[in-house]
Amino acid sequence: MSGGNSGVKVPVLPGFFWRPLELSDAPALHTLQKECASFAYSPPPKPFEKLYAEMENAARTLPGDSLCAADADGRLAAAAWITLDDGFRHELRAYLADCVHPSWGQEVNVYLIKWMEARARVRFAGWEDTRPRILRLDVEHQDRKVFRLYESLGYHFTLAEETMRRPLDGTIPEYALPAEMGVVPWSAERAELFHKTYLAAFRDRPGFPAWGLETWRKAFTESEGFRQDLSLLVLDGTVGAAYAVCMVEDNTGWVLQFGVNTDYRRRGLGAGLLAELLRRFRKAGLAEAALEVNVNNETARRLYIRMGFAVTSVYSSFRKTMPI
Ligand SMILES: CC(C)(COP(=O)(O)OP(=O)(O)OC[C@H]1O[C@@H](n2cnc3c(N)ncnc32)[C@H](O)[C@@H]1OP(=O)(O)O)[C@@H](O)C(=O)NCCC(=O)NCCS
């Protein structure tokens, strides 16, 4: 039986047996995700096509990095899947995702988290560098009992972020940037100036990690869907006053990072730049704008609500450092 590598007793679910996920499980996994979401009052899962594409892309790692409890008809009672992210210079991440049908108890969840940890340990061992090994649980439910469970397993709550969205049909507020300032799109030559503006904009945020140029650049400008033409820098002469890094996914323009230099706040630059982005998104044929904002960031939330954004979901992130 797979799933025995965590050193934890394998739970017995009558009628179900443990095995890795397969691509053909995609419909059953999607059904399970929908059932879990409706029970936890969290938003519905990603569309089926997205899940299928993710599983297809992970075809090579899925046999080792996933586990599910399936019955003879292919129904799933529980599933878990880890995804490694080697894209950060400062840490190596494993995202842990699991889903347990509400009719099964908490011990199945505990078992799956421990199984994923054990699997992450095996996968991390393949890297020879000394970056900290981080386990991440990013969840969209708001179940306090499960949050306490994560904490009892050594995970620390790190942040909660809301996803906010706004359709692009209808009126876009007429805020404008000051006429004396210039707006330029992303280019490799401007990377340092964008990065400098990021530091100047986020320096007053609690827990600001002040990422170096290369870490920041890799995380934000090298992600899939990054749009050079929709990532903008507002210049006051040669000083970066505000900036935004954006990507496109399907029909949605995502504002990945957005900030105004602390020396230029409360002059309407935030509203002006956001309105400019919405106009450019619409011109690019997009249907919707979206962004994520920390629930403790009241200033930014007020701005987004003023610009017509509404909260569609909230996710919480828990992390644990694994000894090397
Ligand atoms: C959130 C943020 C982008 C807002 O930028 P900003 O340029 O100050 O935004 P605006 O000037 O358009 O609006 C901010 C406030 O100034 C007020 N304001 C705008 N022009 C003004 C003026 N001429 N005189 C006085 N007040 C003014 C607005 O009414 C708004 O007030 P409120 O906060 O009470 O609602 C900025 O605070 C920031 O970069 N924060 C750190 C990074 C960050 O959190 N980014 C978002 C991550 S999701």
Given this structure, which CATH class of the largest domain is correct?
Alpha Beta
- Largest pleated sheet: 12 strands, mixed
Order of the strands making up the biggest sheet: 1-2-3-4-5-12-6-11-10-9-8-7
**Principal-axes shape call:** globular
Backbone structural class: alpha+beta
Count of discrete structural domains: 2
Q: Give the distance, in angstroms, between the N- and C-terminal Cα atoms.
A: 28 Å
Q: Say which CATH homologous superfamily of the largest domain is assigned.
A: Gcn5-related N-acetyltransferase (GNAT)
Residues in β-strands, percent: 25-35%
> Which cofactors or ions or other ligands sit in this model?
coenzyme A
Count of strand segments: 12
Task: Describe the structure using short key phrases.
324 residues; alpha+beta; Aminopeptidase; 12-stranded mixed beta sheet; 9 helices; binds coenzyme A
Task: Write a structural description.
With 324 residues, this protein is α+β, with helices and mostly antiparallel strands. The chain has 2 domains: 139 residues, 3-Layer(aba) Sandwich (Aminopeptidase), CATH 3.40.630; 151 residues, Aminopeptidase (3-Layer(aba) Sandwich). It contains 9 helices and 12 strands. A hairpin with a 2-residue loop joins β9 and β10. The longest helix is centred in the middle third of the chain and has 19 residues. 30% of the residues are buried. The model has no long low-confidence stretch (mean pLDDT 94). The site of coenzyme A has 19 residues, from α6, β10, α8 and α9.
